[in-house]
Design goal:
This protein has helices at residues 12-20, 23-56, 79-85, 92-101, 111-120, 124-135, 143-150, 160-165, 174-181, 188-198, 204-208, 216-229. It is mostly helical and 231 residues long. It has 2 domains: 21-136, no CATH class; 138-231, Leucine-rich Repeat Variant. α4 packs parallel to α6, α5 runs antiparallel to α6 (124-135) and α9 packs antiparallel against α10. The longest helix is centred in the N-terminal third of the chain and has 34 residues, at 23-56. The radius of gyration is 24 Å and the shape is globular.
Amino acid sequence: MTEQRTRNPVTAGELAARLAVDPAYAEMRGTKDSELEARQLRYLNAARPVLDDLRLAGYEVSEIADLRTPPVRKYRDAVPILIRWLPRISEITVKEDIVRTLSVPWARAAIPLLFDEFAREPDDALRWVIGNALEGFASDELFDDFARIAADRSFGTARQMVVLGLGRMADSRAVPLLLALLEDDDVAVSAMIALGKLRAKESRPLVERFLGHPDAWVRRKAKTALARIDR
């Protein structure tokens, strides 16, 4: 006969009480709090000159992200300040905050700088964020810049959003480039999605191959792309 064990549920209050007297938990919590405080201090130290300039321009913010806190007003006067400081900041969290704050329609003046930052940024995660910002500005006049990044395999997965941006372009060179990128594992899914957005009929046989991919997420993206192509 299999023994059946009855477990008495523990309430949130009881669990909190137990953890409060657990030395190991207290030490772990203290370490995490210290790490969080250290990160916040690094951010504030690195962001201080940017925040000072923003306040002088009339933006009373304690973090750069406050500019994009709803309800968001078009902080046009802040854009030149952010552009000026982005290449001068080395702290990754502050750079990411600036890039995300420049990812708005009224910050098109930042486009050349974002391309420069993408090319020279050594951190792949931050480079991906920059690519995400660029995707929002995708247009035919920027095709050559997007294509240059998309075709450069040294940028790895950081290119994903840039490749996705090609799906918003009417330039006739976009489809052949995206077809070639289906062979690049780092950006194949992004290329597939972009081809779906462009409803590129010639891509159907190549996209169909992804229906047999071992990753279920990739198979779903292939189905979605094919559905768009067939519309």
